[in-house]
Target: TRAF-type domain-containing protein
Amino acid sequence: MEASPFADIPLNDVGLTPEKVKDEKEGGPAFYCHLCDAQVVYNIARAFLPGLATACIDNTTGDVFTAPASVAAEIRKEMVEYLMQRSETFVAESVVLDDGLEVEASDHPYDIIAYLINEYASTKRNLFSRVSGWLQSDKREDYIDDFAQEMEINGFWSIDKREEIAQTLLKNVDLKNEFHCDMKFYSADELAQHVPTCKYRPRTCQNVGCHARFSASQVEKHDSDCPFKTIPCEQKCSASLMRREMDRHCITVCPMKLVNCPFYSVGCKSALPQCKIEEHSSSDLHIHLLYILQGIHKEASVQVLRKRVEQLQQKYSTKLANIRDVRSLTYKVKDLDAKLGPLKVGATNKVDEAAMTIAKVEFLEANATNKPIETEAIDFEINTIKDTIEAAKS
Ligand SMILES: [Zn+2]
Ligand SMILES: [Zn+2]
Ligand SMILES: [Zn+2]
Ligand SMILES: [Zn+2]
Model:
């Protein structure tokens, strides 16, 4: 059996140990499952550092004596307290956006916490940042990014600690109970039995290169967009590759990438997988010859040209067989055509034009039955030609 690409995370590793909580009612279920949607917890935790960096930078800008790093610890403490308090009493409000529009606030826990982080950071702006145009400057964005990254790298606030806080905040604002488990049990045993089946138990992706964490209920969803999952080529060549490499593969090296026939410029409008070009060039040589001869003898009737194609193929098949580009084949055909002697050219008229198109239809139809892969392009061309015939008749 194939190994599952997803693994459970040991619960005590991520601070998600279910805990016993005192219930108000004596004798009520006192054991709560405290598992949360791991992805949302992670996303909230990730929003803390940029928020903290913003508060620190805006609080110290223009102050030559205070560096953002020197206030970071204090502001972090204050920010956590602020978020805890605000999230406990949070009720969805409508939010007035910068452009004056009032919108119904999102009730997604991530959006709510991000809004609160923003709200906190804006209270830390010092006088200088409020009056100097600092808030609109590009430099500010760079400073914030750099400082957040610096705190991330030097482990100022570990992701585990941030996730613990994020989890509490999530529970406070997830009023619809969509992103955390609220099941209660009468005994530790019952709770212990529930946890391994809880849809919020955290899992990790085992695909090489992927570090995603999510709840068990999100496994299928993650599997269907994990960029590191190996899947068969979308264009159905024999390759299997990571989802993230698919687009590039399909427009570059994939043998099934559609390309124009190398004889496009002389009239062959077939589009085929690049791996079939060789085959097409040899099996459809007669079509390419017909197009080239048509270019040389513009006045010739189709019957005459078709005869000429037959003659060329009978007499010079080996000379023509391996030529794969327009220039060389045109050159060769000119040469061999001259060797065959002058061509008796009938004057072109509508009947001849129609005959030419009929000939193409026959070639193409013969083609279509042999190679299903090209059928679509050929059908299209046949229809175009049939239209031309109708037009020529009238
Ligand atoms: Zn649960
Ligand atoms: Zn993954
Ligand atoms: Zn492919
Ligand atoms: Zn072609």
Remarks:
- The chain has a mean pLDDT of 83.
- The longest strand covers residues 202-205.
- DSSP finds 15 helices and twelve strands in the chain.
- The CA atoms of residues 311 and 317 lie 9 Å apart.
